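ok so i was messing around last nite and threw this chain in just to see what happens. nothing serious, just curious
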Amino acid sequence: MRLDRPKGFINFWLPHVMGSVLAALINDSSPQKLIKANLILLMGTFWLRGATCTWNDIVDVDFDRQVARTRNRPLARGAVKTPAALVLMAVHTVAAAMTLQMLPPRCTLYSVPSILGWIVYPLMKRVSNYPQVFLGFPVAWGVLMGACAMGLDPLSFDQGSHSLFESSHFTILLLYAAHVAWTITYEIIYSYQDYADDRKAGVKSLTLLLGDKGKYLLASVSAIHIIILVQLGVTISASGLYFIGCVFGVTTTLMWEVYDVNLADPFSCQWWFGNGGMITGFVWLGGLLAEYLIAKPPSGFH
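result:
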């Protein structure tokens, strides 16, 4: 479950909470409803991450034994056998499914694409050089789950709208796209930790294609990320607080990250994956929460 590495869990959880905050802003939902939904999402995310980490370790066990960073994982070192890992994964999956029943029924349907993405992701390292890109989609799907938890149907049209671009739900898709870009950014940095070992092990990875040109892609994807956040702010007619936190703040943290990370140094990559992700993520979340609180001030608690 990677309980010793909570920063990965936070990256897993943030799309859910941001999706719920944006949906609450769109639907003018009460703070009580937002808090309740996020307590359930927090529990569900905990169990789902446990299941996905275990599945990843089962599928990647042979690769993990050849990579210095992962060879001491329980399955890779032989401390846990595959049947026991499958039982653990099943327990986590059942717990996640039970938690899902506490959310609106539509959330069950919305969970299916995410689950399929998590099942397929470890296999992508064998057939494609773009597993980091693929991973962005199931991770970012938490945005849609968060919105759905607040009663929004993220992929529907507003009644009377003639196109998706006229729908208020388009904003949810913009946030989803921004999270895809952000996930690709931090996953590229994460993957550079294992650059040399992955090459020897035969793992397919975008980092192996990029070589020492990784920062060019990091800068490009980060620029797309910021452009999407600007468009999101314009679409919802956001206040200055949104643009300070979600645009200026996120731009600053991403520029700092891309400039400072040393992709040839595993320790630098490890630091920026964990700490950089938290810095960017919480600055971004802060901007969204500020926008929500302007629309729904603390008096909404009474």
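not much to say yet. The first helix runs from residue 6 to 27.
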